[in-house]
Every structure is written in structure tokens, then in C-alpha cells.
């Protein structure tokens, strides 16, 4: 669409909200009117006229000239609005609220747009920011922890006669009843259950802990029973089930001894020392990556804390709603309500929502600050950057890179991916320019 000669004025009505007033000449709508009449000429059927050849006068008679003009304006308004933003050098961060003020035939068109704009940002000087880097050396305690995990993985179960404790396994017959009828999905004979795992009915751990072989336990619990006519992950409907549990055996883990024979069992190691050396080498790479990510988080938090930027409420609200939606979905997937989760973490629903809103505010603030760093440092996202990210996504999802690229393009998510890369590059710059100290206070 050729650019119309528009006149704009702007008025700040809040710290992050601006009202635009835009005036257009009467003929600014001509191109959009032509396209609208062409569309109606193709859609409308009038005897004696071929498709696309219906005159404007007949379309006006059938549809109404004002309807045509209103449709033409509706189609053209987004372009006029974007041009007005450019004219006033404003950057919108949310869709506008548009009101058409004057729209008379043959007269100038006037509309007003109330829009949330990017706030003015003053970045803290990176050289004034200091963070303490987490230690990245592999300690003897780290090696011992990995060895204990390996021992646990290669442990054998042996039947014992004492009471069941957390970490033990119990062989049980689990039977769930409703109205004296067994409930499918709540009944499991010869069920080998780890005490404390939380993988059974919510009260099962509490009931079996401290029991001995031969014990018969009875309790009532609220559980979700999936039914054929409901979505697979819908856990909103809970039912009261009466459970009877027969404890048949209690089994404890028998951990293997930490010796050369254990090293040979784990892998191709002749000695326990060789196994430890291998663990130390592999842990060094893992810990280096973990520490690097922890450092990035610390640097970003230092930037947020040092900035006096107030996150725009509109963006915070959008981020809050997005997080609440995902949080509620995750709770439902786990068969838990917000109230039950609150009882578990000893928080009210109001406190949970308050915390999520605070997180949303920091997230929005972080994005705006990183985008400002990217702007001031002229950070660019290249085709190579996008290709590398797409390759990583393809590897994670076990798809072909070309399929990922096609999906991103069709869904319009390429810009969002580029924005993520840009912010990561901005954080890379920040990490390089802040003061990073070790635990002894020495600057790296």
C-alpha cells in the first residue's frame, strides 16, 4: 500500500502508555477501497454479470457503501497504525486500543490509538556489577556421591524380617474397592513398591512404612481413576477408594562393596582407582557446564537487581497468565489441585499467585534489559546462529532440521527464536564484562 500523507500527534498518558492521534486525507482509503470492491465483485453473484465484473454501483446497492468503506478502513488500519508508530518513533509492546473518531465520506479520517510502548531504559554499567562464581573443581565428596549412586544402581534386594523403612521395597497385594467391587487401575497383585517413592495412592507410603510381612492394612484415599471417556491427562476428577494392602515381603537393598570387583562390574575398569579417575574426568566436564549456567543466572540476577526499570504492567500480566496456565496444567497432569499443592508447600493460593507474579515481573524486566543491551551493542543474529539452534532442536526432538525449520516458518516462530538467540548473545556480552570473583574474593 502506498504511504498516505498522515499527520500524527502523541500524548503520554502513563509512564508506558501513549495515545496517538492520526489524521489521514480522505483519499488515503482509495487503494483499500479498490481491493474491497474487487473482493466483493468476485464473491457476489448478480445475474448478467460475470464473476469479478460486477460494477461498484450494484455492489453499493446490494451491500451498502458504508459497509464497504468500513471494511476497507478495517483492512487498512493496521498499516496506518504502523506508519504512525514509525512517524512518532515509538515501539509498541502490545496490541493497541483503536477508536475511529471521524469517518465521514469526503472528509479526513481521524483515529486514536492507545498503545503500550517500550519504556526508556537506562542500563547499569556492567563494570559495576560483581558476582561470585560457584566453585568448579570436582571434590572427593562429588566422587563419593557418584560412587554411592552407582552402588545403589547395582544393589540387589534381599528379603528381611524387620519392619519396612523408607528406601526399602515391599511386595504387596494392593486392592482398591468402591461399593465392595474391585476398581480396575487401583488393584495390583504382587506389586513391588519402593517405600517413600510416592508412586502409589497418596497414603500408601504412610501406611506401609513400619509394617512387617503378613500385615494387612486398610485405608481410604482420594485417587484419580482414568476413564475411557475423559482425556488421558485430565486429573480433575478424584474418587474415594477403599484400599486393602497385604504386605507379603519386605526387601532391603544390599549394596555391593566398593572394591576392584565392583569397578569391573560397573565397566571396563581394572581397579576402583581407575573408576574414580574416570568419574572425576567426566564430572569435570559436567560441573564446568553447570557452573557456567549458574554464573549466567547470577549475572542476570545482578543486572535485574541493579536496574531501576519497572516492568510494564501489560507485559507482566501476559507473562503471569502464561505461567499460571502452564502451572495449572502441570498440577492437573500430576493429579493435584492448587489447594493441595499449597498445603504441600505450606502456602496459600494467594501467596502462590503472588510469587508467580513476582517471577513474571523479573522475567519481563530481564528480557527488556537484555534486548536493550543487544540494541546498544548492535548484537546480530545470523543465519548461522539460526541454523545452529535449529540443529540443536532437531537433535533434541529427533527430527530432521529441515522439518523443524519448516514448522517454525509456518507457525511464525522464527522471529521468536531469533529473539531468544539475541538475548542469549546479550547475556554472553554481559558475562564477559562484569566482575566475576571466586570464593576467595579474587577477580577472574
Describe this structure in words.
The chain has helices at residues 30-43, 56-63, 65-88, 140-153, 204-208, 260-266, 272-306, 313-333, 338-345, 349-376, 383-397, 401-411, 414-433, and strands at residues 7-14, 17-24, 97-102, 109-116, 130-132, 156-160, 169-178, 181-182, 188-194, 216-223, 239-254, 435-437. It has 444 residues and is of the alpha+beta class. The strands form 3 sheets. Strands 6, 7, 8, 9, 10 and 11 form a 6-stranded antiparallel sheet that branches. The chain is extended, with a radius of gyration of 33 Å. The model has no long low-confidence stretch (mean pLDDT 90).
Overall number of strands? 12
Strand portion: 15-25%
Rg, alpha carbons = 33 Å
Helix content: 40-55%
For the biggest sheet, the summary is: 6 strands, antiparallel
The CATH homologous superfamily of the domain at 7-116 corresponds to: Trigger factor ribosome-binding domain
| Name of the CATH architecture of the domain at 7-116 | 2-Layer Sandwich
Mean pLDDT: 90
Number of helical regions: 13
* Spatial gap, N to C terminus: 56 Å
Helix/strand class = alpha+beta
Could you name the ranges where pLDDT drops below 50 across 5 or more consecutive residues? none
Q: Please provide the ordered H/E string of secondary-structure elements.
A: EEHHHEEEHEEEEHEEHHHHHHHHE
Shape: extended
| Highest CATH level, the class of the domain at 7-116 | Alpha Beta
Provide the CATH topology of the domain at 7-116.
Alpha-Beta Plaits
Amino acid at each position: 500500500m502506498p504511504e498516505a500523507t498522515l499527520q500524527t500527534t502523541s500524548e503520554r498518558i502513563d509512564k508506558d502508555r501513549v495515545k496517538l492521534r492520526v489524521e489521514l486525507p480522505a483519499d488515503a482509503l482509495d487503494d483499500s477501497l479498490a481491493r474491497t470492491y474487487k473482493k466483493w465483485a468476485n464473491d457476489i453473484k448478480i445475474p448478467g454479470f460475470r464473476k469479478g465484473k460486477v460494477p461498484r454501483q450494484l455492489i453499493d446497492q446490494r451491500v451498502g457503501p458504508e459497509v464497504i468503506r468500513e471494511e476497507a478502513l478495517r483492512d487498512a488500519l493496521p498499516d496506518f497504525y504502523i506508519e504512525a508508530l514509525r512517524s512518532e518513533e515509538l515501539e509498541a509492546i502490545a496490541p493497541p486500543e483503536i477508536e475511529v473518531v471521524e469517518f465521514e465520506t469526503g472528509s479526513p479520517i481521524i483515529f486514536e490509538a492507545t498503545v503500550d510502548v517500550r519504556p526508556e531504559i537506562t542500563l547499569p554499567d556492567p563494570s559495576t556489577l560483581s558476582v561470585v562464581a560457584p566453585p568448579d573443581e570436582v571434590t572427593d565428596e562429588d566422587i563419593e556421591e557418584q560412587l554411592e549412586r552407582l552402588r545403589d544402581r547395582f544393589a540387589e534386594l534381599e528379603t528381611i524380617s524387620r519392619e519396612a523403612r523408607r528406601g526399602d521395597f515391599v511386595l504387596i497385594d494392593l486392592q482398591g474397592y468402591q461399593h465392595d467391587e474391585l476398581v480396575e487401575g487401583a488393584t495390583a497383585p504382587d506389586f513391588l513398591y519402593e517405600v517413600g517413592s510416592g508412586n502409589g495412592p497418596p497414603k500408601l507410603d504412610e501406611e506401609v512404612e513400619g509394617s512387617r510381612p503378613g500385615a494387612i492394612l486398610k485405608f481410604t484415599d482420594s485417587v484419580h481413576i482414568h476413564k475411557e471417556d475423559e482425556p488421558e491427562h485430565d486429573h480433575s476428577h478424584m474418587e474415594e477408594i477403599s484400599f486393602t494392602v497385604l504386605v507379603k515381603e519386605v526387601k532391603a537393598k544390599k549394596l555391593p562393596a566398593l572394591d576392584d570387583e565392583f569397578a569391573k562390574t560397573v565397566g571396563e575398569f581394572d581397579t576402583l582407582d581407575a573408576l574414580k579417575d574416570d568419574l572425576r574426568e567426566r564430572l569435570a566436564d559436567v560441573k564446568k557446564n553447570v557452573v557456567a549456567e549458574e554464573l549466567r543466572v547470577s549475572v542476570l540476577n545482578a543486572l535485574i537487581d541493579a536496574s531501576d526499570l519497572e516492568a510494564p504492567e501489560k507485559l507482566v500480566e501476559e507473562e503471569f497468565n502464561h505461567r499460571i496456565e502452564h502451572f495449572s496444567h502441570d498440577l492437573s497432569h500430576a493429579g493435584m489441585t492448587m489447594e493441595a499443592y499449597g498445603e504441600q508447600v505450606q502456602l496459600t493460593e494467594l501467596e502462590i499467585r503472588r510469587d508467580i507474579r513476582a517471577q513474571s515481573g523479573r522475567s519481563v524486566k530481564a528480557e527488556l534489559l537484555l534486548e536493550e543491551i543487544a540494541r546498544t551493542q548492535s548484537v546480530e543474529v545470523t543465519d548461522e546462529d539460526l541454523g545452529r539452534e535449529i540443529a540443536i532442536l532437531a537433535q533434541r526432538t529427533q527430527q530432521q532440521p529441515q522439518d523443524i525449520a519448516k514448522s517454525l516458518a509456518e507457525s511464525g516462530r522464527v522471529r521468536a527464536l531469533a529473539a531468544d538467540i539475541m538475548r542469549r548473545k546479550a547475556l554472553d556480552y554481559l558475562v564477559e564484562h562484569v566482575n566475576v570473583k571466586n570464593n576467595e574474593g579474587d577477580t577472574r
